[in-house]
Amino acid sequence: MSTPWQQYEPGIGxxxxxxxxxxxxxxxxxxGPLATKKVxxxxxxxxxxxxxxxxxxxxxxxxxxxxxxxxxxxxxxHYWELxxxxxxxxxxxxxxxxxxxxxxATAQTGFQLFAELTRIDxxxxxxxxxxxxxxx
Length: 136
Prior knowledge:
This protein has helices at about 15-20, 70-75, and strands at about 25-30, 35-40, 45-55, 60-65, 80, 90, 95-100, 110-115. By secondary structure, the protein is mainly β. The chain has a single domain (about 20-125), classed as Jelly Rolls (Sandwich). The strands form two sheets. A four-stranded antiparallel beta sheet has the order 1-8-3-6, with no helix packed on it. It has a four-stranded antiparallel beta sheet with strand order 2-7-4-5, with no helix packed on it. It is elongated. It starts with 15 loop residues before the first helix and ends in a 19-residue tail after the last strand.
């Protein structure tokens, strides 16, 4: 017995989704002192580039979990910090969201973000936790 035709949807382990060029996604924002900006992607990422912008003197700290949910994120240095204007970080990583925190107590900062997106639904992405993300 044959089965009816079903539309194929790529999942997290679909290699082809990461081999082809990604769909472009760009955003940016200013972040106040000690504030955090959550960036949610409409699809799972293939790569992400974050650059610090503006001249406020703040410091962008990039994490994969909300910093309020785990006190160990900053205490155990589970973040990447951009220290100066136009400092940038490129990551070839799959995720559905990232968090950018201004690590400066009095100055605001800004960021610009470019991501390559797959066509994978973000609900198919597992939560990022564990060693190197939230645990020491």
